[in-house]
Write a structure and sequence with these properties.
- About 45% of the residues are buried.
- The chain has 17 helices and 13 strands.
- The protein has about 550 residues and is of the alpha/beta class.
- It is about 45% helix and about 15% strand.
- The protein has 2 domains: about 240 residues, no CATH class; about 250 residues, Carbon-nitrogen hydrolase (Nitrilase/N-carbamoyl-D-aminoacid amidohydrolase).
Length: about 550
């Protein structure tokens, strides 16, 4: 037989954990599975002599296969580079997720299982936080993201952020695991005060945030204070595989301008998606298109926010050229490009710009390209690779039709999954947020739905309205309490319109930041330091005993 009885049991537990993790994430509305997902894995990890890193790798591979296999675009367009990158992610990412399990095993071997299991919530949250702060970061599967369908529960993220939600999830897993172990070992009795205290603790941790959230959501006029801003969102549904090559630039401009003109009279701001303009519109040869946009904005008196590629040229003699700069094959010009957005306002010559800072690893930019540029990764031939990192978190100044002004910031696609990054815009004065994205590359798969749901957490963390504009879906409005309005379907051409409200107040999370993961890091550093100190002490003691 391939598996003996013990191995079959272990294989079942590891697979069950992976399935529970996978089906916790959107678009499945079963985020409650995340409260039990670690439990089967914990039983396997209790064997300190087992191959726990490989066991964890298998669990997380099943998890990734369910939740992010869409990344390879295997069922849509079937682009070779995309499929290779997606396959690499499915193989490598479970390895990265297994790193905290290796640390868990280290604590288990050198102290005991009880210390390892009690420290695990802090260990996991520390890992999630560290996994989000490098250019290799891929925080798509942060555990707190599983809870977006439970609005009462996630209201606490205005205090704790998504990492606080993750800590809560892992803590619930640990408590439930301990309860099950007591039952299996026949140590459970309702007459035992310790057992009653454990059940009480589980119920307390589960219902306290739910009670708070339900109380908050019953308040009147939530999110409807502040200044009214009327926003229109254009979802042109232009095939991203064609927009860079076969659809004429003028045609794409016409589609979006015609849709904008229909709602311009009742809009202060109209939003086009990421790379809604797929060419370097500020170059002299495209001046006619820029003037056309200006004329529409001035005539209809609305402001236009759109994504576009920006370009910067360098004089090789007078300027310091970045190592990541490109050289034109036609005329030898040195230049860099940015995935950007700009805001045109009526009767103003000023154009406000923002360039994307958090870029998708490998598809938009090779991580640490200044150092690793010798690797010469191929550029994806659809106009979206080899971007330079933007320089600053821009806060746009938006004039309203009533002559008032408001402030907002724009997130470009992947940036919206970084809570630490997003709050920096709000700290700088953004009174509402916009997201422009193009999720159509992956077809009608889990990806666009996951990306859409994650924006709910950014709204609650900062208590800001969000206007989300996607090229082919999902576009919507999200209020500061996570309620979604006017969501579009995938692959439909649509325009939606709504009045949203500004907010100038900072939440505890926005103001204080990621206290929970930072505190978790201190806890884990203390535990590891204790182990290392113990090892040093024992080593010195053995040396002294040998001398004497």
């Amino acid at each position: 037989m391939l598996f003996n009885k013990f191995n079959i049991k272990k294989f079942f537990l590891l697979t069950l954990s992976g399935i529970l993790f996978g089906f916790s994430f959107p678009p499945f509305e079963t985020g409650i599975f995340s409260l039990f997902a670690f439990v089967p894995l914990f039983f396997v990890l209790s064997d300190v002599n087992g191959r726990n890193f490989l066991n964890a790798y298998y669990t997380f591979f099943v998890f990734n296969l369910i939740s992010i296999s869409w990344v390879g675009g295997f069922n849509h367009a079937k682009d070779t580079y995309l499929m290779l990158a997606g396959s690499a992610l499915l193989i490598i990412h479970p390895f990265i997720l297994s790193i905290p399990i290796a640390v868990f095993n280290f604590i288990h071997r050198n102290l005991n299982f009880k210390t390892a299991i009690y420290s695990f919530p802090f260990l996991w949250v520390s890992f999630e936080y560290l996994h989000s702060i490098t250019e290799f970061a891929f925080p798509w599967l942060t555990l707190g993201n599983t809870l977006t369908y439970d609005l009462p529960l996630i209201q606490m993220s205005e205090f704790v952020g998504v990492y606080g939600l993750s800590l809560w999830i892992v803590l619930m897993n640990v408590l439930i695991f301990i309860l099950i172990v007591k039952y299996i070992l026949k140590e459970f009795s309702f007459r035992d005060l310790n057992n009653l205290a454990l059940i009480g603790l589980i119920l307390f941790f589960y219902f306290l945030p739910k009670l708070y959230g339900n109380y908050i959501l019953t308040q009147q006029n939530l999110g409807y204070a502040g200044k009214l801003v009327r926003i229109g969102i254009i979802q042109p549904n232009i095939d991203p595989w064609e927009k860079w090559n076969t659809i004429q630039e003028v045609k794409q401009i016409e589609i979006q301008l015609n849709m904008s003109n229909e709602i311009a009279d009742s809009s202060d701001l109209i939003i086009w998606p990421e790379t809604g303009i797929p060419f370097y519109i500020f170059l002299p040869q495209y001046e006619v298109y820029l003037n056309e946009l200006r004329d529409s904005v001035n005539r209809k008196r609305f402001s236009l926010l759109t994504g576009f590629p920006d370009i910067q040229f360098f004089n090789r003699i007078d300027e310091k050229v970045p190592k990541t700069a490109k050289k034109s094959k036609i005329n030898g010009n040195i230049y860099t490009t940015y995935n950007s957005s700009f805001l045109i306002t009526p009767n103003s010559k000023e154009i406000q710009k923002y360039s994307k800072i958090r870029l998708v690893p490998f598809s938009e930019r090779v991580p640490y390209a200044e150092i690793l540029n010798f690797l010469n990764f191929p550029e994806w031939d659809v106009g979206i690779s080899g971007w330079e990192i933007g320089k600053d978190t821009t806060v746009f100044i938006l004039p309203l039709k009533n002559s008032d002004t408001v402030k907002f910031s724009n997130l470009i696609c992947y940036e919206s999954i970084y809570p630490t990054f997003v709050k920096d815009f709000v700290r700088k004065g953004a009174e509402f947020l916009t997201i422009i994205t193009n999720d159509s590359w992956w077809g009608d798969t889990f990806g666009p739905y996951q990306h859409d749901r994650y924006a709910i957490l950014r709204a609650i963390e900062n208590r800001r309205w969000i206007a989300r504009c996607a090229n082919g879906g999902i576009s919507c409005f999200i209020d500061p309490y996570g309620k979604v309005y006017n969501p579009t379907s995938m692959f439909e051409q649509a325009s939606i319109h709504m009045g949203i409200y500004t907010n100038g107040k900072l939440t505890f999370y926005t103001e204080k930041g990621d206290l929970i993961p930072e505190f978790s890091l201190l806890i884990i550093m203390f535990v590891i330091s204790a182990i290392l100190s113990k090892k040093v002490y024992l080593h010195i003691r053995r040396k002294n005993e040998q001398i004497h």
